[in-house]
Amino acid sequence: MLPDFNDLDQFRAVLAAAPEPDGAARKAAEAHNSQLTKPPAALGRLEDLAVWYAGWRGEPRPQIAAPQVIVFAGNHGVTAQGISAFPADVTAQMVANFEAGGAAINQLARAAGARMDVVALELDRPTADFTEAPAMSAAELTAALRAGWVAVDRDADLLVVGEMGIGNTTAAAALCHALYGGEAADWTGRGTGLDDEGVARKARVVEQAVALHKPQINDGLDALAHLGGREIAAMAGAIAAARMRRIPVLLDGFICCSAAACLQAVNARALDHTLAGHQSAELAHAALLQRLGKEPLLSLGLRLGEASGAALAIPVLRGALACHSGMATFAEAGVSEG
Ligand SMILES: Cc1cc2ncn([C@H]3O[C@H](COP(=O)(O)O)[C@@H](O)[C@H]3O)c2cc1C
Ligand SMILES: O=C(O)c1cccnc1
């Protein structure tokens, strides 16, 4: 059973009690890796990925059999400030598209052999416009974290989380500016395709919002409440639930990583069970990945969200484990060691 939480302090306590990887399984995986029929380290980063995954699953020779993709959707009051190239109605329209199987992530999840779930969070009740008021109350944030927390399949052996929410690159930029400082413009990109004038307006919105709320922000959950969105909070809740179940997580683009950053700001080790699936083309994703200490698996110029980049990385991790767990050792294959 997962522990439960009813308020933000209980969620902070859950994060503080997060489990660590299984040291014995990790050691056994390292020893096994060193005996496989290949020159030492010839599979490069795949070898580290396999050992990392084995530690989290507590199995020296695991496979990925049941990956789960969850796309969370939410609406944002800050869209009133003209910060997206698309209207807010697109969020609900895309949820219908996900449910009908017509979006990019439907194809990528299927191609990766992953189960896909869509969780829409109160789309007809957008968050407050955070240039004027906190985006969410503590109770609303708790509810959104819980929606993510309960969406994780207990039998999944890999989790990919992503999002849909017109305006959410503004929320993600504001979260990064609040957590890491610098200039608002450093964290503000084009999102769905703003022109230069639109990006300048968006950066002013980010700057104004962070200046308004910064005095009330003491950790990542305060930042999420003031500047986040329901789908961003739900991604954070799902990432935390996966940790409790020792399910490794592939992070998606800028918005997903802003959710992860909020967890890391509460507990420095909260993302140890996660990898960066890809580096998005959104302006600040590279800088955010650096802050998270994550090296992306892929960099394909995607700037879509929806979990698309992380879903594409599933076969990379699966390939790492197929080699690790399926290859013969030198002794088994009768191959001479160097
Ligand atoms: C048709 C369509 C499909 C999408 N799928 C993901 N996003 C992406 O774009 C949005 C963020 O960009 P901004 O902050 O500029 O609104 C998010 O919903 C994100 O997932 C989409 C956007 C559109 C228009
Ligand atoms: O990096 C992302 O995930 C992203 C970038 C632009 C628009 N939507 C998502």
Which molecules other than protein and nucleic acid are bound? Answer: alpha-ribazole-5'-phosphate, nicotinic acid
CATH class of the largest domain equals Alpha Beta
How does CATH name the architecture of the largest domain? 3-Layer(aba) Sandwich
Q: How much strand content do the residues show?
A: 5-15%
Mean of residue pLDDT values: 98
Head-to-tail CA distance between termini: 48 Å
Low-confidence stretches: none
Instruction: Provide the CATH topology of the largest domain.
Output: Rossmann fold
The helix count comes to 14
GO biological process, one term: cobalamin biosynthetic process
Organism: Antarcticimicrobium luteum
Family: Belongs to the CobT family.
EC number: 2.4.2.21
Structural notes for this entry:
InterPro entries: Nict_dMeBzImd_PRibTrfase (IPR003200), Nict_dMeBzImd_PRibTrfase_bact (IPR017846), Nict_dMeBzImd_PRibTrfase_N (IPR023195), Nict_dMeBzImd_PRibTrfase_sf (IPR036087). The protein has 338 residues and is an alpha/beta fold. The chain has 2 domains: 8-62 and 324-333, 5,6-Dimethylbenzimidazole Phosphoribosyltransferase, Chain: A, domain 1, CATH 1.10.1610.10; 67-315, Nicotinate-nucleotide-dimethylbenzimidazole phosphoribosyltransferase (CobT), large domain (Rossmann fold, 3-Layer(aba) Sandwich), CATH 3.40.50. Helix content is 48%, strand content 8%. The protein has 14 helices and 5 strands. It has a 5-stranded parallel sheet, sandwiched between helices. α11 (254-266) links the parallel β4 (249-251) and β5. The longest helix is centred in the C-terminal third of the chain and has 19 residues, at 308-326. It is globular, with a radius of gyration of 20 Å. The structure holds alpha-ribazole-5'-phosphate and nicotinic acid (NIO). Residues 84-86, 90, 94, 163-170, 191-192, 304-306 line the site of alpha-ribazole-5'-phosphate.
